Structures are given as structure tokens and as C-alpha cells.
Amino acid sequence: MHLSRMVVLFTLMQAVGVAAAAADEPALKLVLTIPLDEVKGRIDHLAADVEGKRLYVAALANDTVEVIDLAAGQRIKSIGGLKKPAGIRVLPNSRNVVVASGEDGKVRVFSPDLKLLGEVSGLDDADNVRLDPQGKLAYVGYGDGAIAVIDPEQLKKLGEVKLDGHPESFQLETTGDRIFVNVPTARHVAVIDRRTLTVIATHAIGDAASNFPMAMDEANHRLFVGCRRPARVLVLDTESGKMVASVECVGDADDVFFDAPSKRLYVSGGEGGINVIEQRDADHYNLLETIPTAAGARTSLYVPETGRLYVTVPSRGGQRAELRVFACGRGP
Fold it and tell me: What is the CATH code of the structural domain delimited by 175-332?
């Protein structure tokens, strides 16, 4: 065989081998399990301090926030007495930790060395927490239907916007001023102008219900709305509100994340699994893989800086409470 043809053939064989290896690589690989001994009951949301290599876990039914040292791969402390902590975020500049507790309606702020700096009260059933793009303001869903704007440095409430029901997950644009909010009891997504703190639109979710988790592909103007009845992820156009796609997902979904570089969605659900959904283009999606977890393991956090998905498993029956760490493949 001519030498040039041999080189071409060898190159093609190498390419096929690389493609086959990529195809065999799992979308998610369990790399670590961290026990959460003595943590009882339901576990809610998580937050990462990437610089400090820490993860904070809101153990709602345990009335604690569990502090995980990611470098050591172990829990190092519990912050107690928090009265059903639900939402949690880490401020990027100060690395202070914002915790919203539903039972006593307080938003507490802790320093990186876990000292209580102060609190804001009067936020009954305080739930999800999000930060503005600059990381200076905290938005907190609470009550029968409202989102409060909190200054976590000055420890005061700056304003609020009323909604038609208790808000679940919501997302803030980074290049615009809109907030998209899941309002399950109203069976719609509310759109807020955060400059005026007014609802400027509502997008119905059709025959679906129980729209709890949410993620966004801002570059393609797509909103991902996780619904529990039926168990599907709806894809909405953020400009028109029109539903452009729908894909089946795990039951009892409580968190969904979109990784733009790999064009993958990660959906965790209490039915006991994680879905990896592939975005073929802005309007077309398919279920790539489902990874079994455990009953009740519905809350998770994807950290794009490290390519890790953290999934919480509650204590249930003979299953201990734990944190499972998955390495995420980056796709083809």
C-alpha cells in the first residue's frame, strides 16, 4: 500500500477510536460519596464556595446547614438552629453565606468562618435564594406569593414583588433585567422586571402542572421548566413564552441545570435518578442517559467551574444520608 494511503488509513482509525472512546464515556461518573451521618429527613438546596472549596447543604428537616470540605471530601461542621433552612447562596466577593429558613421566616448571613453576621426577618416560608449578576443583592421567594430583594451586606429588605402564588425556582438574566419565576399553583411562569419590581408577563405551561425546578440557556433564549405532572422538562422561548419542546424526565424533579459548553441538562428527581438530556439545537432535545440514585434524592447542584454534580441522598429506611459527587462528561 502506498505510504500516503497508509497514513490516511491510520488517521481514520485513530479518529474512529477516539469517537468510540467518547461514546463509551459515561455522561456522569460517581467519583466520591460523602456520609452525612446523623442528618435526618428531607434535604433541600445546596451552594458552592468555589474559591474556598466548600459546599453548603441545607438539611431542611434537620434544622442545619452541613458544611463540606471539598478538598478533603468530608463534612467539617453543622450550623444548627436554623428552623428548616431551604434556600442558600454564597456571595462571590465576601464569600458570606446567605441562608433562608422557612419555619421562622428569616434570612441569615454567615461569614466564611461561619459566624452569624445578622438576619432579616418577616419572610414567612422563605425558600429559594438567587443573586443578581453582580452578586450584591439576594432575591428570596417567600410567603403566599412574593419575591423579596435583600441587601445582604446592609441586612435589610429593599423591596418586593407580589406573585399569584408561592414561588419555586427562579432564574435571573445576566444580560438583561428579567426574572423568570415558577409559580406552581398558578400553573405559569411569571416574568418580572427587576428594575421596577413588577410582573410584566406570565407564560402558561399548558396541560402540565407542578412546575418546580428551572434553568436557562440565555444565549439561545430558552427556559427549561421541570414539571412533575407529568414528569417532563418543558422548553420555553424566553421572548415569546411559546413552548418549543418537551422531553420526559425523572419523577419528582426538584433541580435542573444547563451546561452550555456540553449542551446538556442535568435533572435530579426524588423518584431516584438523574437524567442527562442532550440539546441538539435550541428546539430539539433527547434523553441521553439516566443514572440511578436513591429514593428521595431530588436536590442537586451543578458547579460548572469544576465539572461536578453534587446530589443529596436523604436518610430513608436503611439508606443513610449522604452526598454523592459525579464527574460530568463534556460531551463530543
Answer: 2.130.10.10
